[in-house]
Design goal:
With about 425 residues, the protein is α/β, with parallel strands linked by helices. The protein contains 16 helices and 10 strands.
Length: about 425
């Protein structure tokens, strides 16, 4: 039986993946921090490591480096679950020797299992035979001093395990030799088990969602009142952990859009922790607006799970080519297509013929300023209600009032953080609504 080490500090996430792997015939162990994970690499001797990059005590990239520094572990598969918006962390993991990096927002346990089966060269036939063998808990050959005495094991019998789908049989036992189920029957039963498993994860997340959102909001008010930089950094760090946890849980449950937004917010918060000089009224307002959008968003309704929306297109209007390129690159980070033009005249032609999901406007432009352009586009079908965000160097308080008067939705101050603009776009590209409505 092949073995998988899960290095993950979130108990529910670890239990869900461990249950899926155990039901597929893998033996699993869980390490809740980096030091315990490195110790279990020596004692548990896994065939593959499932690693969360945001693990405490020893970070994910350092774990990979230490594993790769050992000659006998140079080829050990290491699959990383990560927030794709945290580019520096992802690059560090790849440079350290990660075998595969997988997005938390889009990867489900079923998809992760497919990745692992492929890396461990287990096809469908091997999976069927392995699933018939109950998972066991093997004692490690030796214990390193830093390893936990009783490392948590995850078995297929835990409360998140997949239900056994009963196979109909005759009352009279048959003496004929047993045969494997036909491929179509095996596929149907496997699909049913996946559906039962996903339904449980989905239900569990909806129950925990208020708690996850409360953890995100708890540090927000003290953060907004704080004037001391250290206090702000602590609040931002706490919010970053909460946002990353929300992203992991919502992605696991199949709420891809919500996971994407929470992951982008976590990336913005991490950038502000690492560069506190970037904290401004603009970035703080973006944080507040995104938290509100996550709380009120239809991304968390039953109907929204696994329902991809039509890809939006964003219009960028700015006479500065460097600013236009920066905005388009920020949007590319969230896989959003953008059309950019250098002035209001070209923009008006496009607005009359195309429906956009979002519009970014500079204020100071030749021929017509951004405020006048916004006022005019509010009379043009089909963009009279399209969200508009001004990106400007003008005084924020003065510009914000005028932006609201002409129908603008928000304002970002130049120079801006690319991740802030990406987060702002995510929060506006699809309308928010009360999920209980």
């Amino acid at each position: 039986m092949k073995k998988i080490l899960i290095i993950e500090d979130d108990a529910l996430i670890a239990r869900a993946y461990g249950s899926k792997y155990g039901s597929a015939g893998y033996e699993t162990q869980v390490a809740e921090d980096g030091e315990a994970g490195l110790a279990l690499v020596q004692t548990f001797k896994p065939d593959l490591v499932h690693l969360d990059l945001g693990i405490p005590r020893v970070n994910g990239a350092e774990i990979i480096r230490r594993i790769r520094a050992q000659p006998l572990l140079g080829a050990l598969p290491i699959v990383v679950l990560t927030n794709t918006y945290q580019n520096r962390m992802v690059k560090a993991a790849i440079d350290a020797g990660a075998t595969r990096c997988v997005s938390k927002a889009t990867c489900t346990p079923r998809m992760m299992l497919e990745v692992i089966d492929k890396l461990l060269s287990r096809g469908p036939a091997a999976q069927a035979s392995a699933a018939a063998v109950p998972p066991t808990s093997l004692e490690p050959e030796s214990k390193a001093p830093t390893a936990p005495e009783n490392p948590p094991a995850v078995e297929a019998t835990d409360d998140l395990a997949e239900e056994i789908i009963p196979v109909p049989h005759d009352e009279t036992p048959s003496l004929a030799p047993q045969t494997l189920p036909a491929p179509a029957e095996t596929f149907t039963r496997e699909t049913e088990r996946h559906e039962v498993f996903h339904a449980r994860i989905h239900s569990e997340f909806l129950k925990r969602r208020p708690e996850l959102l409360a953890a995100l909001y708890e540090p927000l008010e003290p953060l907004l009142r704080a004037e001391d930089e250290e206090v702000r950094i602590r609040g931002l760090s706490q919010m970053c952990r909460a946002a990353d946890r929300l992203a992991s849980h919502s992605g696991l449950a199949g709420f891809e859009a919500a996971s994407e937004m929470a992951g982008a917010l976590a990336a913005l918060l991490r950038e502000l922790v690492e560069g506190p000089s970037e904290i401004s009224a603009s970035t703080l307002r973006t944080i507040v607006d995104t938290c509100d959008s996550l709380r009120e968003s239809p991304r968390f309704t039953e109907e929204s799970a696994n329902q991809p929306a039509a890809p939006p297109v964003v219009l960028v209007v700015d006479d500065d080519p460097i600013a236009r390129r920066a905005i388009c690159l920020a949007l590319a980070r969230i896989n959003v297509a953008a059309i950019s033009v250098d002035g209001p005249v070209a923009a008006l032609g496009l607005l009359a013929e195309n429906k956009f999901g979002l519009i970014f406007l500079d204020v100071q432009m030749p021929d017509m300023n951004g405020f006048d352009l916004c006022r005019q586009l509010r009379t043009i079908h089909p963009n009279e209600s399209t969200p508009v965000v001004f990106v400007t160097t003008l005084s924020e308080y003065e510009s914000r009032e005028r932006a609201a008067q002409v129908g603008g939705n928000d304002l970002i101050a130049k120079p801006f953080l690319p991740i802030e603009l990406a987060v702002k776009a995510l929060s506006l590209l699809r309308p928010a609504a009360d999920p209980s409505a």
